[in-house]
Write a structure and sequence with these properties.
The structure holds 2 protein chains of 2 kinds.
Chain A lengths: L2 E5 L3 E2 L5 E8 L7 E7 L5 E7 L6 E3 L7 E6 L4 E6 L8 E11 L6 E7 L3 E5 L2
Parallel strand pairs in A: 2-11
Antiparallel strand pairs in A: 1-3, 3-8, 4-5, 4-9, 5-6, 7-8, 9-10, 9-11
Chain B lengths: L3 E4 L2 E4 L5 E7 L7 E6 L6 E5 L3 E2 L7 E6 L2 E6 L8 E7 L7 E2 L3 E5 L1
Classes of the chains: A mainly beta, B mainly beta.
């Protein structure tokens, strides 16, 4: 079945780096747009990064731009998030999600229709 | 950035009740509004996309509607398994895409 599995979460000290991975299976990853979304403890959801299927379009939230880098390897059906200069407010569960364009009437709507189980990143000294 | 104001932040209702959650966008976003359900310790699941289209496999007691910049998620006949937090999310034009702060639904 369609599945996303994140890995790489860990406890890291402020200023440190971490690389998250997301393995896709059960669907055509190379045709799919992907995003990273995070959720701080007890808080809501925050979209942080998007990458198109061919990596030619990338967007970041202001909160991570310049520190985080999203990338993908379609040959390995994998999505990545390189996180540098980590801060305490980066502590969160990090989800990868498939971003699908849904066509109804009018322009298409992007929605996150497949999510991984999440990986926990804790930034603390 | 487009802001989403979700209300109420929490509610308590009985099994069988009709429940409505509202999400107000800070500007016109056409029908680019989605709803998700998240249970404790789990990833969110897509319920409604494009303001009113039921995602595949979602029970028909869930429905969505739009009135200008106001969007509603309605649960007809609340069930025990609907105990969860519900988030709205906008995807108008290009990112940043934003989420509402969530509505926690509890069963009386």
């Amino acid at each position: 079945q369609e599945q996303l599995v994140e890995s790489g979460g860990d406890l890291v000290t402020p200023g440190g780096s971490l690389r998250l991975s997301c393995a896709a299976s059960g669907f055509t990853f190379s045709d799919s747009y992907m995003s990273w979304i995070r959720q701080a403890p007890g808080k809501g959801l925050e979209w942080i990064a998007y990458i198109s299927n061919s990596s030619d379009v990338i967007y970041y939230a202001d909160s991570v731009r310049g520190r985080f880098t999203i990338s993908r390897d379609n040959a390995k059906n994998s999505l990545y998030l390189q996180m540098n200069s980590l801060r305490g407010d980066d502590t969160a569960v990090y989800y990868c999600a498939r971003d699908t364009e849904f066509y109804t009437s009018g322009p298409p709507t992007d929605a996150f229709d497949i999510w991984g189980q999440g990986t926990v990143v804790t930034v603390s000294s | 950035d487009i802001q989403l104001t979700q209300s109420p932040s929490s509610l308590s209702a009985s099994v069988g009740d009709k429940v409505t959650i509202t999400c107000r966008a800070s500007q016109l976003i056409a029908n680019s509004l989605n709803w998700y359900q998240q249970k404790p310790g789990k990833a969110p699941n897509l319920l409604i996309h494009s303001a009113s289209s039921l995602h595949s496999g979602v029970p028909s007691r869930f429905s969505g509607s739009r009135y200008g910049t106001d969007f509603n998620l309605t649960i007809n006949s609340l069930q025990p398994e609907d105990c969860a937090t519900y988030f709205c999310q906008q995807s108008c034009t290009t990112p940043p895409w934003t989420f509402g702060h969530g509505t926690k639904v509890e069963i009386k």
